[in-house]
From TrEMBL:
Membrane topology value: Multi-pass membrane protein
InterPro entries to which the protein is assigned, alphabetical: AA-Vitamin_Transporters, EamA_dom, EmrE-like
Originating organism: Rhodopseudomonas palustris
Any one GO cellular component localisation term in the record: membrane
Protein name (database record): Multidrug DMT transporter permease
Amino acid sequence: PYLLLSLTSLFWAGNIVLGRFVAGHVPPVTLSCVRWIGAMLLLLPFAWPYLRRDWPVLRARWRLMLVLSATGFAINNALAYWALQYTEALNALLIQSSGPLFVALWSLALFGVRLTPMQGVGITVSLIGVLTIILRGDFAALAQVQFNRGDLMFAASLCAFGLYSALMPKRPAGHPLSLIVVGTGGGALMLLPFAAWEFAAGIRPSADWLTAGVLAYAVIFPSVLAYICFNRGIALVGPNRAAPFFHLVPVFGSAMAIVFLGEKPELFHLAGYLLVVAGVVTAARR
């Protein structure tokens, strides 16, 4: 489960970096809608036998599946891409580190599930590691970070995904592929009217290889592979033990900046990585 959750963070880190890179090039709702349509079509041939078998159970729990589709696929994703039109990468990565807090709050509010002391310590240690990386070892810079509407939208997307994570243990019994196909299909349907509005308003993606590459990555890695890994990881260890792996997203994001953007690795990178890993290992223990 820890390998699966680490891969999830890696794919989502690439999604955030790419989403910021193509801001203004691909409309946010269109990107999100195409992402889920592509993921559903890609998975449907493999999921079809399981979907036929599980459909009565999924249909009986349609209200829960509707909420999971909205929070885990439609709302959180569209808000995140939309937020990246306005906020800087520093702010997005900083806010991303609050993901475990939203999961813990929803789990407590809905089901009375409290963090264990070790989970609380682990989340705190890994959060310090994230801040070390993002603030380049200078915690005084935290007071100079300015939040805008993009930051608030990104936080709202994490709040929605925290609800999805907290509800996942209550999901209907069925094959993981059945759940993902229904979730991606439901999310795409919810976003379709808004994507059509974007297109009608003249807010359209550029027809070039960059757009094609972005859409291909968004469909395969942060959608199909990441959600399969994430859902299976939560099924194995539960939401509170899985939540600290959110902190690996900024770690992988900074590593991508070093590899692909030519940023120079510094000592604070190593210190931050070690703190995040230590926090994740601590929180993931039984």
